[in-house]
Amino acid sequence: MNSITKGQMMKRLSANDIFGIWAGSILCWDENYRFDADAYAANIRLTIRHKPHGIYTTGSTGEFYALDFDEFKQMVDIQSHLCGQAGIPLQIGCCSDATHKTLRLLEYANTKAAVGAAQIVLPYWMELNDREVLQFFRDLYTACPDMPIVHYNIPRSKRFLHAGDYLKILEVCPSLVGVKYTFAGSHFSQLQDDIQAVPQLSFFVSEPLLASGMQLGARGCYSALIGVNPDYMMRYYAAAQAGDWIEAIKQQRRLATFYSRLGVLIGELGEGSSDPTVDKAMAVAAGFAQSHQRCRAPYTGWSDQSVATLRQWMSANYPELMYNQSSK
User: Fold this and answer.
1) Phi first, then psi: what are they for 18, rounded to 5°?
2) pTM of the predicted model, to two decimals?
3) Does residue 28 surpass a pLDDT of 50?
4) What is the percent of the chain where pLDDT is above 70?
5) Residue 112 sits in a domain of what CATH number?
6) Which of 30, 136, 187, 217 could form a disulfide with 36 if both were Cys (CB 3.0 to 4.6 A apart)?
7) pLDDT over threshold 90, residue 310
């Protein structure tokens, strides 16, 4: 489905093409914890209707670690078909704990014309030294030199990279075009320096730091919250993009408070706090997700009762985050 044929136009992305709000895709599991292709496609179609700047898959929210290769291929087929049909830019998460596994994912994504870039993490079980980091990126570029690469820069990979690292990586992997700069609040003093030192890369930050990050030169957000209320996230970005910093910072502070209070609620409910468990619970509670909140083991999705409690709490305290049912 949607494989590259002779003469077909490629839709690969440059750094200048990667901006705005990119929607993270949650995976869907049926009652037997098998990949639910129909529910997954329904979520993607609904996301596309709200016209995000792009869609990306299989990061932390997208449970990359839980898919086997055949399921990964099925997911990529669905994404590339729907995004290609709609003209929505697409990044496929090609993340794993070993180079040969990452390359297998990357090479399959590379067969799809609609895939604009691949988002990767450093193999994460044991910390890589500088030589190993460079070799990893060199291997990616050697295997698929025409596939743009976005680095999912996250401390869970044991190495959090900065401008000096990226300048060296660009020498062996010139296809690197962007950085998902997670936990930017913990590295905020370095964010501006990193953006200025490698302006050829597109830097993205998380929702609760979007306005401040854009003031320093970040270009957008890879967002799970767009799966709660996409219109809210698009308005938030539009305010920052227009330089309406009073409104943008107001929304940033509102989201920072939301996440802080959400953490307290999670503790009271005794539910899991991993990315997919929380993001799915919010998406279902808000009325956006066309699927159940279950996660594949070892992580446990929230109970129906806890999701109902979250829905009541969000409706009472953060009604602007609830999805407008009439827009379905």
Assistant:
1) -105, 100
2) 0.94
3) yes
4) 95
5) 3.20.20.70
6) 30
7) yes
